[in-house]
């Protein structure tokens, strides 16, 4: 088994990429030359071409050293990357040099070092690299390290970042998948036999000196003619059998030289043809330049004309605007125009009042559209004919609330809250439909379900109702059976709302009408004793209770207000 290496491939490649350590790169080439050369040789059947491809693979590795090193773990091996690179390089070479490869293959077939391989090896050799490429990255890496690099399971596990047992299982799995691949091509062999066959035949020794030649070529940045290096080393290591075949080899190579000479002549003829074709192109280029200059001149003329037209158009627009002003002056007495202007003035006044008293403003008002404002203003006009002439300057909250202008402000706020309530309802329904009926855990959970979206300033005014809240007006029925959300704080001029996935509930609407009737005398007694001032809290009314019915109504009202968990300014006087 192979010995443990002092530094991993990844560490040495990173050392070369970051610090230019050429010795580290030479060690990588020495370690993996046999692997890359064997993979190339299996695919191209030519030791010369295999050597060329081997050099190309390591040149590519040197060029991509930094990005490749960045993707590798600290103890990772380069075996998998180099195998894939050799396969791609061989396929590209076969595709680009198919005819010349056929001639060279015929000459080199006599020099194959594995002529005495078994019949099984001859069956799997042509498709072994395709089979390896069909494996996953981890399986292929494990198989290459175990049988192609001859490492034990501990070294394999270290390179893959797994335990020894996991490495052994991964190798076994990879061998089984190779057997499945070969069986589909009618090559049947046992798992142990396949492992032995790969170990014995898969890795061929590269020609002597190839690793050193490649390292020198790559690190010097020069393209070494690997075929020359191979020829020299081949002569040194030549066996008796090879010497007897050299005559035939030279003859074939000479034929290849004649073929290449013919290709050169053809290329020269093609160059001459292209030069002849360029002559008319020069005339076409001159014509295109002339057309470009003409177009530039026309563009300048059009720009000048456009500037003149714009000046004329501005004058025409001014005359048109003057005509419109004259027509508007003629329509000042038009009833429809008067109504529209009055509506605009009343809307602007209400907005101005909210600006003067920001404590009355609620963010939901921004949801109101022109139709909503028109309905609010019509209601205010019906209930108070002079509300538009009233002001809030110098008035107390109680005085404003009792005035026509206060009623209009209340209508705006109530309409805004009821505009937002259906949006909360739909968001609740969408959330609960998406979560099997489960209620939200926080009010912010609803934000993605609003259509159109709402801002946080609006949504944060609301809270989730705590479970178990009772409604005393309906036999202490659990309010949270149907309702989930309410406002955090109450709002002047408006009744609080409880909102659920199927609707919303106006807590102080018609349900409290009877209570209001019973409590009205208490409110009057408080006002008479306090210079016509209205109570600012419910507790101020308690000393003025006389009858048991009033006490019960007071208790029910107080219980109702506490049950909905809203601490709002007291305005809903009975």
Characterize the structure shown.
The chain is mainly α and 574 residues long. It folds into four domains: 1-113 and 206-237, no CATH class; 116-203, Arc Repressor Mutant, subunit A (Orthogonal Bundle); 342-506, no CATH class; 510-563, no CATH class. It contains 22 helices and six strands. Helix 6 packs antiparallel against helix 15 (240-330) and helix 17 packs antiparallel against helix 19. The relative contact order is 0.05. The model is unreliable at 107-117, 222-261 and 566-574 (pLDDT under 50).
Q: Report the sheet-strand fraction.
A: under 5%
Overall pLDDT, averaged? 76
What is the first-to-last residue Cα distance?
A: 97 Å
- Uncertain spans: 107-117, 222-261, 566-574
User: Which strands sit side by side, in order, in the main sheet?
Assistant: 1-4-5-6
- Tally of DSSP helical segments: 22
Number of strands: 6
Defining traits:
mainly alpha, 22 helices, disordered C terminus, 574 residues, 4 domains, elongated, Arc Repressor Mutant, subunit A
Task: Produce the secondary structure layout.
Blueprint: H1 9-19, H2 22-44, H3 47-63, H4 65-71, H5 79-96, H6 98-108, H7 119-124, H8 128-134, H9 137-148, H10 153-160, H11 164-183, H12 191-201, H13 210-220, H14 226-236, H15 240-330, H16 335-356, H17 370-383, H18 397-401, H19 404-434, H20 456-459, E1 462-464, E2 470-471, E3 477-478, E4 485-487, E5 497-500, E6 503-506, H21 513-529, H22 548-563
Antiparallel strand pairs: 1-4, 2-3, 4-5, 5-6
Helix pairs in contact: 1-2, 1-4, 2-3, 2-5, 2-13, 3-5, 3-13, 6-15, 9-10, 9-11, 10-11, 17-19, 21-22
